[in-house]
Each structure stands twice: as structure tokens, then as C-alpha cells.
Amino acid sequence: SRIFNLDLNRESRTNKISSSTKKKILLTTSNTPYFNEIEFDRIVKIFKSIIEWSKVNSIDIYFRIYNSKILSELSISDKSNLTEGSIEAYIKKIDLLITTPSSISATAIMLDKPTIHIIYRDTPIIFQSAWQIMNTEMIDEVIKSALSRDQKRMIHQKSIIPQVVINNTNQEINLNKKDTHNIKYSFFSVFFAIFKSKIKGLYYKIFK
Q1: Cβ proximity of 153 and 130 under 8 Å
Q2: Quick one: pLDDT at residue 46?
Q3: Those residues with Cβ within 8 angstroms of residue 18's Cβ, 6 or more apart along the chain or in another chain
């Protein structure tokens, strides 16, 4: 599973992220971001508004999107679409991850990066982020809160993945001093929660 394979010393094969002092956002999606045209339209509407908000507020925005239909609708260039190399390496260089509900959220949280989920369907979400955007009206308030690393939200975010402590100095992941059994159980719990979420998505695709 990609969320537990964190090779923090592995460098990206590309170096497309600017070294400027501007705040930086990475916008991405799950492997299967939508199941029908309604969901596609909802995602695109919110993504377009986030892109426009970033321009107005002088925020650098980057993408990691593989879905050709979304790429075409948003007119995303190859230069800003970071599909090569390790996503962990890119997350280390940005200030905020925005994604449709995805297991990559766990990676960002482990790296102590504020994470926003785009919510566009009413099925239950087991793995929930500390920030959520459900419509375009929420974008300004939610993104500003996440970029400022609101203290209460960051504390809540760290509690989402049990038994993990983020070392913000050297970006290493330190496990609490508990026995190996508890540590393995913690990772299994997160994996199982994400697996259940995938099953719910498949159910939604077949029966809804």
C-alpha cells in the first residue's frame, strides 16, 4: 500500500516546484475520482474555483492528476502536472494538499501537511480529513484556515492516524514507544478503514 511506503530520502525525478516564498498547493484526486457525470461536474466546478482563488490570492498551485477528462476540462499543462516521481517528495515541498478522498491523505498527514478533502457525494467517509470543502462558497475560508495551519485543526489531524507522532523538525516519522503488536494493529486499522471506503465506492458505482 502506498501510504506506508514512505521513503523520505527519495527525490523526485523532476523539480517543477518553484523555490519562491509563495504558499504552494498540490491538487490531486483518488485513482477513481468520479462514478458518473454528476460527480464529474461537481469535482470540476470546485477545482475550477480553487484554481481561480489561487490566482487571485497569489498562491502557487500544482497538480497530480491522471484522469484525462479532468485534465482536459481544467486545461492543465504538463508543466504544472506533477505525475512523475515520488508524490511524497512533492508533498514535502508544498504547504497544503487538496484532494478528493484518497489514501494519499494519510501520507500528507504523516508528513504534517494540512490536508483538505473535496466532498461531493453523500456516502459515509471513514477516513476523514480535518478540513473539508463541500461547495465553492467554502473555498476561501477553508483554504485560508488550512494554509495558516489552524492549531486546533492540526491537533485533530494528527489524531486521525493513531500511534503516529510527527517530528516537524526533520520530517521523520517516529512511532510511539509501544509494543510492536500495537504499532502493527494501528497501521492495519488505517488500511482496513481505507479498504472499507473503497468497497463503499464500488457499491455506490454498481447500485446507485
Answers
A1: yes
A2: 98
A3: 24, 60
